[in-house]
Amino acid sequence: MRTKLLFNCKQTSSLADRFHEKQLGLLDKWRVRIHLNICDSCKNYYVQSELLKVELGRFIANLQDNPSQKLSDNKKKEIELAVLKDLGISN
Ligand SMILES: [Zn+2]
Predict the structure, then answer these.
(1) Given pLDDT bands bounded at 50, 70 and 90, which one contains residue 1?
(2) Residue 5 Cα to ligand 1 middle (Å)
(3) Euclidean distance between the first and final Cα of the chain, in Å?
(4) CA spacing 20 to 30 A to 55: which of 3, 25, 44, 75?
(5) Distance from the CA of 38 to the center of ligand 1, in angstroms?
(6) CA of 11 to the centre of ligand 1 (A)
(7) 12 Cβ partners below 8 Å, 6+ apart?
(8) What CA–CA distance (Å, rounded) separates 14 from 27?
């Protein structure tokens, strides 16, 4: 079976999260990189994913430094509604 040289969006998005990890081989890294250079949707997904990782890391570090800090129930509900709205599940 012949392997396609370029990844499609589905393949790219599933591998983009592992782009910096060593478990992604050189050829797959190259395929992801090429796709990110030609596809704005996947590039935006990748950038947003990286930003989310950074912010999540900061949030966890802050929680570890200040374990007494927790989100209020109102803030949790606000975040939940924003995520559901963003996903188009709620309005
Ligand atoms: Zn794409």
Answers:
(1) very low
(2) 14
(3) 46
(4) 25
(5) 8
(6) 9
(7) 31, 32, 35, 36, 39, 42
(8) 15
**Predicted structure pTM score:** 0.60
Q: Quick check: 76 pLDDT over 90?
A: no
Which of 6-15, 40-49, 63-72 is predicted least confidently? 63-72
CA distances from 43 to 19, 20, 36, 38 (A): 12, 15, 5, 8
Average pLDDT over residues 52-80: 84
Report the separation in Å between the CA atom of 89 and the middle of ligand 1, taken as the mean of its atom positions.
23
Side-chain half-sphere exposure of 4, counting CA atoms within 13 A = 8
In the reported structure, the alpha carbon of residue 22 is separated from the centroid of ligand 1 by a whole-number distance in angstroms of 22
Ligand 1 centroid distance, CA of 72 (Å): 37
* Distance from the alpha carbon of residue 57 to the mean position of ligand 1, in angstroms: 26
Q: Distance from the CA of 26 to the center of ligand 1, in angstroms?
A: 19
